Hints:
Strand order of the largest sheet: 5-6-7
Number of helices: 10
Amino acid sequence: xxxxxxxxxxxxxxxxxxxxxxTKSDLVFSSPDGVxxxxxxxxxxxxxxxxxxxxxxxxxxxxxxxxxQISAVKMYLNKLHPSCExxxxxxxxxxxxxxxCWFMNSPLSHNLLSKMMRRLSEAAGLSQSYTNHCxxxxxxxxxxxxxxxxxxIMAVTGHKNVQSLQAYDRPTAADSSVxxxxxxxxxxxxxxxxxxxxxxxxxxxxxxxxxxSTASAVGGITVSGSSNITINYTPFPGYPPARxxxxxxxxxxxxxxxxxxxxxxxxxxxxxxxxxx
Length: 277
């Protein structure tokens, strides 16, 4: 139902239990500044859709102002059953366009209204099955991207905690592009700096005004100046410091040296028999 979609997105209505309580008289048509708009009565919103911005009526925050949408809502109200005060009613099977009434004298239950978006997803053959909360989340995300303050969004959505809105602050494709550009710029800057300042580089050249050829040694660095600057790095005397010899691990057993024996009875017998090599 197109009218159900309009009201759910503009007023961030919660589940079917709240939507099933809406009546025809809860929709208010007004044009205080010359622009016609639809709002929901403050009494209904205060009882069923309490928001986080105290002291401000909900009708001043949520509204429908698109002329085509307003025309659709007016036509919908004209085709409702006059004996039923509920805003969402059961539709007739095949009403004619010229028929004065397109709906039955029976309201939609909150169970049907709570599954409305899922039924619409299946009927339209969408890529996935959406829920009523998907419309509510979409509206909150669009308001945050438009720069509306969180406290004013809470007056429409009914959230009582500002932190609850952080889940709807989703990054956009433009945010991803900005992040990628920042990373690429940082990477190029770091690469250029590393190329000139890396210890592995033996020569670093930069364009400077031509000067006479001079040479000086400061702290182990020899600088010779000409049209370019050439830096030859030599370490300071005694740098780097020599590493001390590794100490023996006391947990390992000592290795005993084998004593060399000049002769033994076996060696003497081999010599006597002429078997000594």
